[in-house]
Design brief:
The protein is mainly alpha-helical. It contains two helices and two strands; from the N terminus they run E-E-H-H.
Length: 124
């Protein structure tokens, strides 16, 4: 297990993570640090603990909203897949009808050609 130093609100913490996740953890820490810095700039100096809690709640709200939006998009995608499936099924039925019609037309043309070929010959 890897140990990564991260800095949040001016304090350095050593945090454990799985091998290969170090860069990801550092980026997450930067996100939290930036959120705290932004809140400090917006609300002025206040207790570190309160600022950290406010940042955590804000990030949790953003996560909640993102999950809600993902659910909406998944529902839309599911509906779109159903629409595509219906369209494709309709297309396949239409192609089958066209193929049947072409087959019937070809059979009628063949009969007409046979009649014409037979009509042009003298009877025996």
């Amino acid at each position: 297990m890897a140990q990564v130093p991260i800095t949040i609100a001016g304090r350095v913490y050593r945090v454990a993570c799985d091998e290969g996740e170090e860069d990801h953890l550092v980026e997450l820490a930067k996100l939290v640090d930036a959120k705290i810095a932004g809140m400090r700039q917006q609300f002025g100096e206040m207790g570190d603990q309160r600022l950290t809690v406010m940042a955590a709640v804000t990030i949790a709200d953003e996560l909640f909203e993102s999950r809600r939006r993902v659910s909406e998009l998944e529902a839309e995608l599911s509906g779109a897949k159903g629409d595509v499936s219906n369209v494709l099924r309709g297309r396949d039925e239409w192609l089958d009808r066209v193929a049947d019609s072409l087959g019937e037309a070809a059979a009628r043309i063949e009969l007409a050609a046979q009649d014409l070929n037979g009509a042009g010959r003298p009877e025996e």
